Amino acid sequence: MDRVTDFESGGCAFDPRRGHFSFNMDENPLFLINILLARLERISADSVWAHRASGVRGALLRLLEKSEMEHSVQQSEVKRMMDLGFFILKKTAEELSSRNQ
Known about the structure:
The protein is mainly α. It is 55% helix and 8% strand. The two termini are 22 Å apart.
């Protein structure tokens, strides 16, 4: 079951050659933000990345709230926060992997 999840319908794709997600900001990234929020929330408090994950979650939630209230949200800020969230998830996975070896 080593299938790569297909996020293309929502403007996101996993590029296995580069080892990261890419997404099209022209489309609505709300579903991806919600997935990212859920994953960041599950980071163990024992992780050195937990505190940063909490801050990124808060920033993403504020951006979502702002967009729901139909206020202007800079896509560059959304992309920056999402990139940071994915970076934290990657580092957390590396941390877990090194603990299990």
